[in-house]
Design a protein that fits this description.
The structure is a homodimer of 242-residue chains. Chain A is 35% helix and 13% strand. Chain A has a single domain, classed as 3-Layer(aba) Sandwich (Rossmann fold), CATH 3.40.50.620.
Chain lengths: 242, 242
């Protein structure tokens, strides 16, 4: 962490993508990491986020409690604990295919909300920019991961804030936008990311004091394929195939 | 409340503007009212919001706890309780003038965050639209009250959500946008709003079990002038001039 660098807010879930962004941002910014507990099934990711934030020497790390959000949207997404919907699983032999429609793990307006919270903090600390690990190639078909969403958010943010009105709008960096999953893994590996301490699984399984990735949700499949294509040993602890 | 009407999310602070919007929306929508406790000095407004929601027979009213936000932005706005900054006051004899710059009571990215939360709820309940009481004439110079901000937010929301991608984006209604304060008061009066049970003051004063408006902040001045111009008796309980 460079104490003289400009400040930035980095959205950090504790997953593979956002931890890679944390590593990249840390080279250029005084990082203020921001995480959310919104009732996600995989809230164990926040322990990874905490350790990764420490590892990269961030200036601050805030975990925002948004459990109320999870309750309000529980009927519309499988990703929160209180949802009656199940996270879709696939046979391990089935090859990951591009998702052609928005899956049930989409959380309504999640990235708009997370970025808005980041925007408030960024303006309060006079940050140069906000970093987010969205990518639009090997992803799950979420509308709020597309570059056109990020661009529209930046336009809105310029109009919403004092900073925008005063002519030095807060920037938005989505450095993974045009990378495939294996390229993200290669980038993070070159930046010293310990992927063993990241979680991508939407539906992890507790086993004693360890957590195992299910290996069969969309996110696990994309991650596993990414390590394979990158030629990097996959450090993920998967549950035994049933 | 019309049980067969389309659902809508209405942002309800408990102030004069949002209560007027609540009254207007209630004629056409099954209202889901949404309020926020973010550490504002005038959190007493939430009791007004609760009573107004009941009075207009809303289908649901949620008060979201965002105290963490108030702590993060306390250095950048006078409007939150934990801020070291003071709410600016004016001599009662001084006529309210248009604010030419953004005042210290601006809360970073507040409307972007509130609208994003509303967007999540609106998508989860399949609401037709989101209603907000921003207005750009007799207001305090906040960037996130301008029609161009609301329009940019709507564009972003269309790209952020399943609803937008599927071609039936959630709408945004800001029916007070082009009204002066006295016109808002006239509208609300015609819709049966009890303005005695709304609070606009940024810095209200507790007096026993009552709350008095300071009478000298920007918001009190705009409100007082509005009642005067509307020719409606001002039911506000102001603190005695010091």
């Amino acid at each position: 962490m460079n104490a003289d660098a400009p400040a930035a807010v980095v959205l950090l879930s504790g997953g593979l993508d956002s931890t890679t962004v944390l590593a990249a941002a840390s080279r250029q910014r005084r990082v203020h990491a921001l995480s959310f507990r919104y009732g996600q099934r995989h809230a164990v990711e926040l322990a990874c986020a905490r350790r990764q934030a420490t590892r990269f020497g961030v200036a601050a790390h805030e975990i925002v409690e948004l459990g109320h959000l999870g309750r309000l949207v529980a009927g519309a997404t499988a990703l929160v604990e209180s949802s009656p919907l199940a996270v879709p699983k696939h046979a391990p032999s089935e090859r990951a295919a591009p998702v052609s429609e928005i899956p049930v793990t989409y959380v309504p307006a999640r990235n708009a909300l997370f970025l808005s919270y980041a925007l408030a903090w960024a303006e309060a600390i006079d940050a140069a920019d906000i970093w987010i690990g969205t990518n639009a190639l090997d992803y799950s078909g979420y509308p709020d991961c597309r570059p056109e969403f990020i661009a529209a958010f930046a336009t809105m943010a310029g109009l919403a804030t004092r900073r925008g009105v005063e002519g030095h709008a807060i920037g938005f960096e989505a450095p993974l936008s045009s990378l495939r999953k294996h390229e993200i893994i290669a980038l993070g590996t070159s930046l010293g990311v310990d992927y063993a301490d990241t979680i991508s699984c939407y539906d992890p399984i507790a086993e004693g004091d360890r957590v195992l990735a299910c290996g069969t949700c969309d996110s696990c499949r994309l991650r596993r394929e990414g390590f394979s294509l990158a030629g990097v040993a996959d450090p993920t602890r998967y549950a035994p195939a049933t």
